[in-house]
Amino acid sequence: MRLSNRISGIVGGGSDGWGVFYKARRMIAEGIPVTELTIGEHDIRTDPVILEAMHKAAMGGHTGYAMVPGTDRLRDAVASRIQARTGVPTTRDNIIITPGGQSALFASHHSVCDEGDTALFIDPYYATYPGSLRGVGAKAVPIKARAERHFQPDAADIAAKANGARSLLINSPNNPTGVVYSRETLEGIAGVCKDHDLWLISDEVYDTQVWQGEHISPRSLPDMAERTLVIGSMSKSHAMTGSRCGWICGSEAAIQKLIDLATSTTYGVAGFVQDAALFALNLGEAHEEKVAAPFRRRRALTLEALAGQNAVRAVPADGAMYVMLDIRATGMSGEEFALALLDQHRIAVMPGESFGAAAAGHIRVAMTIDNTRYVEALKTLISFANEKAK
């Protein structure tokens, strides 16, 4: 029996660039110790007080169908959080709760793209972006953010591909690069969206992990609130990756249609999970800073370890739990370097090519293990790169 073209073409054919990660996991399964600096999973787990709130909600009976848009209390809390951070008036009618940020990403594109529409996204990109766009039937078109611009997207490059497109997907703070988009960059992006009548889908799941500069939500820029859909999540800010609780913030009209979509697809998020998310949000910014603090420290340790040598250079790591390292001085591709590092030193990093052509010759390092082991692995990586550069 034949499957649909849409689902058969989600990965776009060929390798997805994650061979190093899968090889590392096979080695671990065979009992070979590997230092993993690959995926964005906290080295702490969800705070026990949040889990206790989840347990209490479940035992209290909030295990039946929850309201499809999300509980009123959680939507109110998310709206208040967004309004406080951006200054844009926001109410529960601007919010739908989703089963995580990935679901929000998929639903957002469903709401703005018809079959065959062009959906733009920035390269380097989070690994699921192209598949999500293809999964809604859109034509996924990457726009390279150049290494010489520190991976800040250029409005002119976006405009060159914007004619006839329906949407543009951006992510700041950025995975995989760790770059925080500047006000100038975002104003340029907003200008292209208005000039070409594009929907802007802004993935802001790392908004609590900003080490330098400021996070600016493009929804807060002039005349952008009605054409912007913002994706948020509890995963990174509260170490609740497995709980699958996120949201979309947009115009009332867009959210109402997204509620219709959720009614026919996910049918909402478990009530006890939403209660735990509400409890977590009410812990305030101090808890979010506590979750983010290890990555802030490791970012500083990274810059310290890289000082005084030229074989490995850091892309400005201003946010998120990753650093993107330029290893082109070794003469190796990101994939060649990562495979050799894994084979010779049992350290697993992600090749830049896993996240698009723009990051060729780079590697992404997830700052997700304890400080001591992280610094040891980083020093080994730098020594290995210096050997290859010679």
From TrEMBL:
GO terms for biological process: amino acid metabolic process. Gene3D superfamilies: Type I PLP-dependent aspartate aminotransferase-like (Major domain) (3.40.640.10). It catalyses: L-aspartate + 2-oxoglutarate = oxaloacetate + L-glutamate. Its cofactor is pyridoxal 5'-phosphate. InterPro entries: Aminotransferase_I/II_large, AspAT/PAT-like, PyrdxlP-dep_Trfase, PyrdxlP-dep_Trfase_major. One of its GO terms (molecular function) is L-aspartate:2-oxoglutarate aminotransferase activity. Keywords: Aminotransferase, Pyridoxal phosphate, Pyruvate, Transferase. The keyword Cell division does not apply. Belongs to the class-I pyridoxal-phosphate-dependent aminotransferase family. This is aspartate transaminase. It comes from Cognatiyoonia sediminum.
